[in-house]
Write a structure and sequence with these properties.
The protein has four helices and 14 strands. By secondary structure, the protein is of the alpha+beta class. The strands form six sheets. A three-stranded mixed sheet has the order 1-5-2, covered by helices on one side. A hairpin with a 3-residue loop joins strand 8 and strand 9. The longest helix has 20 residues.
Length: 207
């Protein structure tokens, strides 16, 4: 796959990843939203309560990923997609998963998310909303050969939570290995030594 270094390619990629999420975690039950990439300082993503995108035939919800945090490790991007997809699932199935105008995430949301390979922790103000990938979600990313996004909007105000706290990119929990001879590649969650059986030479970890 070509490196994810331009906006158009990333937009198409996110739609593909959402469809994988829908198939794997929601049995293809979700209506596909319009996926956008816009600046939302202080949030990794959001989903609209109403169907705000319209054409002559259909209307869809908006699922936005923040452009300011787009180059986080792919497992974290996927975790945010699943988080927002859980809200879509709740809306479609009339499950009240938030309160206080959608700000506070309750235990119904926690249950929906943790059933889909997310680790959910409680925020004092926003409830059960702190979202992290589990080992099973890392396996999902590896099995589907999902790649990190290499483009981000560099805002002059990279703030989250409280003023003065700068968001730094965490290293990915996965590692990419490739054969320098034939180009075969794979991902792993730890450092390993593996031979390419086609070429009989060691795989090299990508820098």
């Amino acid at each position: 796959m070509k490196p994810l270094t331009n906006y158009q390619r990333v937009s198409q990629y996110l739609v593909r990843v959402f469809k994988l999420v829908n198939e794997t975690y929601f049995n293809n039950s979700l209506d596909i939203p319009t996926i956008t990439v816009q600046s939302t300082i202080g949030a990794y993503g959001h989903v609209s309560v109403q169907k705000v995108w319209h054409n002559a035939e259909t209307a869809t919800h908006e699922l936005n990923l923040s452009a300011d945090y787009l180059n986080r490790p792919i497992e974290n991007i996927v975790a945010t997609l699943i988080h927002e997809a859980c809200h879509l699932y709740a809306m479609q199935n009339h499950i009240k998963d938030t309160s206080n105008h959608g700000i506070y995430h309750n235990k119904r949301f926690k249950a929906l998310a943790e059933a889909r390979d997310l680790k959910i922790s409680r925020h004092e103000k926003y409830g059960w909303t702190i979202t992290e990938p589990t080992e099973k979600l890392l396996d999902f990313c590896i099995e589907n050969q999902l790649e990190d996004i290499q483009i981000v909007r560099q805002s002059s105000l990279m703030l989250i939570g409280t003023p003065g706290k700068t968001v730094t990119r965490k290293p990915s929990s996965t590692r990419k290995y490739f054969c320098p001879c034939c180009g075969n590649s794979f991902r792993a969650t730890k450092n390993i030594n593996v031979l390419c059986l086609d070429c009989n030479i060691p795989f090299i970890q990508a820098g």
